[in-house]
Design goal:
The chain is α+β, with helices and mostly antiparallel strands. The chain is elongated and about 45 Å long.
Length: 106
């Protein structure tokens, strides 16, 4: 499966458009990670714990997007867009949504 943020794939023709697909992943940041993240806010620097959680959520969303594309018979997903949001009480959860167009390449 070819996945790309671009609307086309260089050197490959899109034979058919199978539809817009999307997936969402919501992942909680636990109390321990909140404490470590808070310390980073006070002392500065990057929060590796939150970066790991975001990367994990992105991987889940992309995996689900690929599975949905495969279910439609796609061999590529083009125009992928990733969005990140905080949800829940006090922004305690992280949401990653991914969308794109499932296509069949010639």
């Amino acid at each position: 499966m070819i996945v790309t943020t671009t609307p086309s794939i260089e050197g490959r023709a899109i034979q058919s458009y199978l539809g817009v697909i999307s997936s969402e992943t919501i992942i909680g940041a636990n109390f321990f990670k909140d404490i470590l993240g808070g310390l980073r806010d006070v002392f500065g620097g990057r929060s590796g714990t939150y970066e790991k959680v975001l990367e994990e959520a992105k991987q889940y969303a992309m995996q689900e997007l690929v599975e949905k594309g495969q279910a439609l018979g796609a061999n590529a997903i083009v125009g992928i867009d990733l969005d990140y949001e905080t949800v829940g009480a006090n922004g305690s959860m992280l949401m990653v949504s991914a969308s794109g167009t499932a296509v069949k390449l010639a």
